[in-house]
Amino acid sequence: VTDDQGRYRAPVLPPGEYEIKAELGGFATAIRNKVALTLGQELTINLTMQVATVQESVTVTGESPIIDTTSNTLGTTISREQLDSLPVPGRSFTALAQTAPGVTGVGGGGVNAGGQLSRNNSYRIDGVSNDNNVLASPRGGVSLEAVREYIVIANQFAAEYGDASGAIVSVVTRAGTNDVHGRGFLFHRDEQFDAQDPFSKAQGSGQAPFSQQRFGGFLGGPIRLDKMHYFVSY
Question: Rounded distance, CA 79 to CA 103, Å?
């Protein structure tokens, strides 16, 4: 129910695709389909209701992507589709953080934003701090299979985050649904597939051995429909 000015607010919504519907007696029902909400995003969705003399509804679809005009924060959201399709060294989600504007890695790893040291970053998992204050790094890793999406906020983030002058890396993990879903993977890189380094070949030192194997997967489903679900990853 809106206030007397027609304003409404729906806080603490998980990322996903939503449908917004407005109803009032004497007016045509207004429906906005396929509203994509990503992590850390605040959307302003204005619905216009027309006077109706008979039962009818107006559905809006196929609009251009909604631009967030309420925030000046510089951030990049990494979606589940990107996590599945982009090559990720070491199967660590933090590697994709370096694809965000203004973010780079030093020494082959870490996240450095806006010229700040990696010790100035803060990492959140489902809204909870994952910082190791002693080592100035994430306290622990999360399986790439368990990540739904995450956002890298390079600068100008709101005071609600705090605890950092560098970047904010906020992760939302996946959850089970009413349907059973699972997947397994095997990442195999054998030294037989590696090319000969031209410098080592020139000095006759032979091909450097390099081999890497990683495997895992996830499984999620219902315990009680619409009430309780399970999700495990390895």
Answer: 17
